[in-house]
Amino acid sequence: MNTDIYSTLKFPFSPLNFTDEELTIAHLKQSLDQFYQWSVAEFKANADIEKLIYTRAKFIDELLIRLWKNFHIPDQVTSIFKSNRISLIAVGGYGRSELHPLSDIDILILSDKELTSQMEEQIGQLVRLLWDLHLDVGHSVRTLKICLQEAKNDITIMTNLIESRLIVGNQELFDELQQQILNENIWPSKTFYQAKIQEQLQRHQQYHSTSYNLEPDIKNSPGGLRDIQIIQWIALRHFGKESLQKNGHFVYLTSEEIDEINNCRRFLWRMRFALHSVINRYDNRLLFDRQLSIAKLLGYQGEGNRPVEKMMRDYYRVVHNITELNQMLLQLFEESILSLKSDKPYDIDEYFQVRDKLIDIKNNDLFIQYPVMIMQLFHTILLNPQIIGIHSNTIRQLRSARRKLDGLLCQLPQARQQFLQIIKHPDAIKKAIFLMHRHGILAKYIPGWKRIVGMMQFDLFHIYTVDEHTIRLLLEIADFTTEEGQKKHPNSSKVYAKLPKPELLIITALFHDIAKGRSGDHSELGAELVEQFCQLHDLSEKETKLIVWLVRYHLLMSVTAQSRDLQDPAVIREFAQQVKNKSYLQHLLCLTVADVCATNETLWNSWKQSLMRELYFQTDRLFELGIHRIPEHRSIAREHKKLALAQLVQDGYDELEIKQFWKDYLFDYFWRYTTEQIVWHVKNLLNHDLTQPLVVINQIPFHGGTEIFIYSPDRPYLFATVSSELSKRNLNIHDALITTNKKEFALDTFIVLDPYGHLINNDRHQEIKDNLEKALRQNHYTRVKIKRLSSKLRHFKVPTQINFLSSFNERTTYLELIALDRPGLLARLGEVFSNLGLSLRSAKIVTIGEHVEDLFVLTNKDNQVLNENTCDQLQLAIMMAIDELDNES
User: Fold this and answer.
1) pTM of the predicted model, to two decimals?
2) Spelled out in words, what is the top-level CATH class assigned to the domain 346-625?
3) How far is residue 408's CA from residue 375's CA, in Å, rounded to a whole number?
4) CA–CA gap between residue 575 and residue 589 (Å, rounded)
5) Where are the beta strands (DSSP E) in 684-838?
6) Exposure of 179 by Cβ count < 10 A (0-12 exposed, 13-18 middle, 19+ buried)?
7) For every residue of 231-254, which 3-state class applies, written as one string?
8) Mean pLDDT, residues 341-346 taken together
9) In which band, very low, low, confident or very high, does the pLDDT at 9 lie, cut at 50, 70 and 90?
10) At CA 679, angle to CA 677 and CA 681, rounded to 5?
C-alpha cells in the first residue's frame, strides 16, 4: 500500500477513533454513507482517482481494524495444548488496495490451526456485522495448510493470495503464507503463466473477442482492467513481490509506454467509479441506459447523445491501447517465463525477418524512414504462410510510426500497389486486413475510416461500433470459403465462389458504412467516397460502377426481403429493375448476408435465410426469363391449382371431390399459397367438420419458420385474437397471410419463431394448437393485459412513422409502420383494423433491435384500395392505440 497517497487525501474522520458507543449498526451505516458522499463529492471535484480508490481501501482497513479489536480477536491464542496465530488478510482487488464504491471486499481469516468455538463465534459476529452494514464482503476462514492446498487446486484462489496484504493480526503467519505461496511447488511460474493466458482467451471470447461492443464491461471486456491486472499477476508470480518493488516488471516497457498504461488505467478507474456512483448494485457494464449519466458525471458535454459519443470514443481509444500493450508484454513474458529457446531468426528479405514464427523488422527506423513499408509488412505476412503474427518489437515500432504519420498512406503510389496486392490475396481478410484494423493502420490508409473508429450506434439492433461491424462483415465474407461458413450459408457460399474478383466486395465492405455519422444519407455519401477511392486506385470504370452501386444500395436486398411482399410478382420485378443484372445480384447477396450477420449474431436465423434465398432465386429466374415476362397473378393461381390437383390425385384423393371443395375458394388463395401449402390444407380440411375452427401446425419448417394454419369463421378481431394468443405463448410472428373463402371462412397462415429465432419444438405444438382453437371458439374478443415495457426499451425513443407505400396491386394498400417495439402492439393493430372495417391480406413483421418495421397489406370491406379519408382515419387510430399502449405500460 502506498502510504504517501493517503497523506495527501484525507477523509473527514477515521474509524480508528470510533468509541465503543459509536460501534452501533446505525452509526456505522451513517459513517459509511458519509464517506461515500464525501468520496463522490471529491470525485466530482476532480480529485486524483488513484487517491480516491486507495483511500476507500484505507477507510475499510481502519473500520476492520477497529471492529477486530472491538471483538477482542487476538493475534495469537496460547493455551496448555496449543498456540494458534490468527491474521485478517485482504485479498483480490482489496488486496491491491483498490476499492471502488461498489467493489467486493474480499478478506481471508487465516489461522495456524482449527479455531476454537469461542474464536468462531467472535469471527462470526464480526462477519455478520459487516453484512448488516450492507457491505459486499466475500470472506473465507482457513488454516494455513488448507489455504495452501486450495491455492494449489484453484488458480483463482492462488491469484487472490499473491496480491494479499495484512490488515491486522499476526505478521509472522502472514509472512509465512506469502513465502509458501511463491514456492515453485504451488503453481510454478510457467504453469501459472499458461493458465492465465488461457483464462484471458476464454474471457475475451465471452465478449466476441473484441473491445468494440456497444455495451462493454469496463473490467472484463478485451482491453479492460483485467487485461492490465493479468500482466501484474504474471509478473508477481514470476518475479516476486520484493523484486517487483525494487526493479518493476515494466522494465519491458519504455517510459512513454509506462505512462500510457498508467493513464489508461486511470481513465478506466474514473469511468468505473462514475458507473458505481450511478447504479445501486455491483456491475461493470456500460449499458445504454447508464451511459449518458456516466458521461455527464465525467464532465462530457453536448446535446442529445453527444456526451456519450465523446466518452465512448475515448474509451475505445484507451482499450485499443491496452490491448496492444497487453499483447506486447505477454509476448515478452512468454520469452522470459517459458525460457523459450528462440529459433535463430531468418531473413525474408532485406527488410523483414521471422523470429519464432513472428514477423520482425530488421531496422527499427524502417517505418519512420519509409512509411510505405507499413503496407509491405502486411503483404509480406500474406506471402509467408508460416508467419502467425507480429513480433512485439515490430508492434512497438508500428505504434510509434503510426502516431508520427502525416497524411494518409493511400496518397503514396507504392502503398496503393501494396493495398491492391493485399486485397487480391485469398487470405487477405483474416491475415492482413484484420491485423491492419487491430493495429490502427486502416485509419492511416482509408479516407474517412478514422471518423468511424469507436463510433457508437444507439440502438439494440447493432452490438458493435461502426468500424468493428465493418471488420466483422469482412470476416463473414471470408467464412464463405470455410466448411463452417458453407454449412451456415450454403447459397451465399456457392454464389461467392463464382465471383470473378472478390476483392471488389472487400472494397465495398470497407466503405458501406464509412459515411455514418455524417449529415445526409450514409449510403449516398459512402458511394461518393468510394468512387474517389476507386479512381485513386485506378480501378476500371466497370469495376468502379459496380462498387459504387453496391455501397449506394447495400440495404436494398435486406429491406426488400424483410419488409416487402415477396409473393407479389410486381415486387420482384421492381427489385430486379433496380439490381439490373445477375452480377450485381450475386455481389449484393453476399454483401447483404454478411452485413446482417455482422450486425448482431443473434439476428441471423432460418427465417431471414429463407427470405434472402427466395428473393435471390426469384430475381435470378426473372433475369433468365426476362424482366417483362414475369407471370401475372391469375396465371400463377392457375398453375398452383393445377399442380396441387395433380399431386392430390396422385396421393389417392378424388378429383371431383376436390374440385367441388374448391368452388368456395377465390383465385387470391391459389396465387398466394404455394402448391405444397394448398395440398397440405386440403388433406387436413377434407377430414374435418368445416363448421368448426381448425388449427394445424406443420411438422416441416416452412421458409425457415414454424407454420401455423388456421381455418375459422371470419369475424372481427380474428387477427387480434390470434396475435394475442401467440404472444401469450411467447411466440414471435414473422409473417401472416390472410385469405377468406366465399363462405366467409378465414384460411390464415402465421409463420412464427421463438424469441431466440428458433423453430418451435414439436413437443409444444399440441399445447399451442389447443389454446388457439379454444381462443377461436370464443364468441367475443377479450383484450389481454399487456406486459410491462422493459427498462432497456424505455431508454429508447423511436418516433412513430406511418407510411402508405405505392402498391403494385390496384386493389390493395400497403401500410408501413415504424415504431418502438411494444408488448401487445400487433394485437392492438388488429383491433384498429377491425374497428375500421378493414381486411388484412398479409403482414410482414420485422423487429430490428428496439423498433419494428412492419408491413401490412390492407383492403376496405369491398376488397378495394383504401381512399384518402380512410387512410387518414387509420393513421390517427394507430397513433391513438400506441399512445394507449404507452399509458398502460
Assistant:
1) 0.87
2) mainly alpha
3) 12
4) 13
5) 694-697, 706-713, 732-740, 745-753, 801-805, 813-820
6) exposed
7) HHHHHHHHHCHHHHHHHCHHHHCC
8) 76
9) low
10) 70
Grid cell locating 662: 374448391
pLDDT at residue number 228: 95
For residue 849, how many C-alpha atoms fall within 13 Å in the half-sphere facing its CB? 20
- Best CA proximity match to 823, nearest among 848, 800, 789, 798: 789
Q: Give the N- to C-terminal CA distance of the chain in Å, as an integer.
A: 51
Strands 137-143 and 105-111: parallel
DSSP classification of residue 513: T
Contact status, residue 843 vs residue 855, Cβ threshold 8 Å: yes
Closest CA to 739 of 783, 681, 780: 681
| Exposure class string for 314-349: b at 16+ Cβ within 10 A, else e | bbbbbbbbbbbbbbbbbbbbbebbeeeeeeeeeebe
Task: Write the CATH number of the domain with boundaries 191-337.
Answer: 1.20.120.330
**What type of residue sits at position 832?**
V
Q: What class is the 3-185 domain? A: alpha beta
> For residue 642, what is the enclosing H or E element?
helix 633-650
From CA 118, how far away is CA 122, in angstroms rounded?
Answer: 6
Domain boundaries in the chain?
3-185, 191-337, 346-625, 633-888
Indicate the length of the chain as a whole number: 889
In what helix (H) or strand (E) does residue 360 lie, and over which residues does it extend? strand 358-361
Write the DSSP symbol of residue 699: S
Residue 748 in this model has a pLDDT that exceeds 80: yes
Residue linked to cell 441506459: 289
Q: How many CB atoms lie within 10 A of CB 439?
A: 23
Per the CB < 8 A criterion, the answer to whether 176 and 144 are in contact is yes
Burial class of 740 by CB neighbour count within 10 A (0 to 12, 13 to 18, 19+)? buried
